[in-house]
């Protein structure tokens, strides 16, 4: 039984999700205490509880402590069974984070594909949105040899939720390592400014502001399409940079009382920070999501990251508790760095 302190590092739900995935991948049980101790609402919230129950469902696990607000969990995994699964969070909790918990156990060294339908939030704060998953995250996984197709059946924003994410996961016998020295300098930006259940002029204001700011700050023109979606209410602005080896996407989300211009400014600030990083390499959000599959990959991996984050350092610490793999992260938090995973 691996003992894990959920208050270390960023003290959030990532510790839980990575522990669940690694338990299924290695067959090793764990006892997690002080769950999400670093958050304003500690313990299991609906999306975290669904991650636990999704992991238990695909891995025939025995679980103790799977209840709302629980701060302690015992998870004893069984064999992972690929197949068709439906998981309903019941709130606007992030569908992407439930997917992050189970995709790798359903793919790595499995013999059959899997299909997931997850309902909840597709575009919510503090989590990867659908468009990031489909543009950047999925493209990085392709480089590792892992094939996942995604579809957003319906968008879901906070607080209403109701979004539907569909994922088709192909089995993979082995994963490849990754070598990314730095990204090429982006010379074009495209994006989407969308509203759901709100006036179209809000999306137009987001697009105008982002286009103006990008021209002013980095001298790049942006081609931003205005879209109107069903459901909502909610708004989003995405900015996709034509970087290599994969496109890099940033986004800003609307909220009650938040001006459209501020949504645009938040997305632009992320893109500009990435463009100004030396060397840029992998974006900060992708870095902490890549270290888990790369820890299982054949051969060594090495990549520069635009900014070292607490999420990245915490994820590395959790992985080390389950796997005998040397993972080193060089660089100050908040600054560019390098991640190296031994062969």
Q: Structural class, from secondary structure content?
A: alpha/beta
Relative strand content: 25-35%
- Helix percent reads 25-40%
Assign an overall shape.
Answer: globular
Low-confidence stretches: none
- Do you know the CATH topology of the domain at 82-173? UDP-n-acetylglucosamine1-carboxyvinyl-transferase, Chain
Q: Under the CATH scheme, which architecture of the domain at 82-173 would be assigned? A: Alpha-beta prism
Count of helical segments?
Answer: 8
Q: Major sheet: order of its strands? A: 1-2-4-3
CATH superfamily of the domain at 82-173: RNA 3'-terminal phosphate cyclase domain
Write the H/E string, N to C: EHEHEEEHEHEEEEHEEEHHEHEE
Structure, described:
- By secondary structure, the chain is of the alpha/beta class.
- Among the domains are: 92 residues, UDP-n-acetylglucosamine1-carboxyvinyl-transferase, Chain, CATH 3.65.10; 88 residues, RNA 3'-terminal phosphate cyclase, insert domain (Dihydrodipicolinate Reductase, domain 2, 2-Layer Sandwich).
- It contains eight helices and 16 strands.
- It has a four-stranded mixed β-sheet, with helices on one face. A four-stranded mixed β-sheet has the order 5-6-8-7, with helices on one face. Strands 9-14-16-15 form a four-stranded mixed β-sheet, with helices on one face.
- α1 runs parallel beside α2, α5 packs parallel to α6 and α7 packs parallel to α8.
- The two termini are 27 Å apart.
């Amino acid at each position: 039984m691996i003992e894990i302190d959920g208050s270390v590092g960023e003290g959030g739900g990532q510790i839980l999700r990575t522990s669940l995935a690694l338990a299924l991948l290695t067959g090793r049980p764990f006892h997690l205490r002080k769950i999400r101790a670093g958050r304003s609402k500690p313990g299991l919230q609906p999306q975290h509880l669904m991650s636990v129950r999704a992991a238990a469902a695909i891995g025939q696990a025995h679980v103790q402590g799977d209840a709302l607000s629980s701060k302690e969990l015992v998870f004893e995994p069984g064999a992972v069974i690929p197949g068709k699964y439906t998981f309903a969070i019941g709130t606007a909790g992030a569908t992407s984070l439930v997917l992050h918990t189970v995709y790798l156990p359903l793919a790595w060294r499995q013999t059959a594909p899997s299909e997931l339908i997850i309902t909840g939030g597709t575009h919510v704060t503090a989590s990867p949105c659908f468009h990031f998953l489909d543009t950047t995250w999925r493209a990085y996984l392709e480089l590792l040899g892992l094939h996942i197709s995604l579809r957003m059946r319906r968008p879901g924003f906070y607080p209403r939720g109701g979004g539907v994410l569909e994922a088709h996961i192909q089995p993979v016998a082995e994963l490849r390592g990754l070598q990314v020295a730095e990204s090429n300098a982006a010379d074009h930006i495209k994006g989407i400014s969308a509203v759901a259940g709100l006036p179209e002029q809000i999306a137009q204001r987001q697009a105008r502001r982002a286009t103006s700011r990008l021209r002013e700050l980095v001298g790049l023109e942006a081609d931003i399409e205005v879209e109107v979606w069903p459901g909502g209410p909610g708004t989003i602005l995405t900015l996709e940079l034509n970087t290599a080896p994969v496109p890099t996407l940033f986004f800003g989300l609307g909220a009650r009382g938040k001006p459209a211009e501020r949504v645009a400014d938040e997305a632009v600030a992320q893109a500009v920070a990435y463009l100004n990083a030396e060397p840029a390499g992998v974006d900060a959000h992708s870095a902490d999501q890549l270290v888990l599959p790369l820890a299982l990959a054949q051969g060594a991996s090495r990549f520069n990251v635009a900014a070292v984050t607490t999420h990245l350092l915490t994820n590395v610490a959790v992985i080390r508790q389950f796997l005998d793999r040397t993972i080193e992260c060089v660089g100050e938090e908040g600054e560019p760095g390098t991640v190296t995973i031994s062969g």
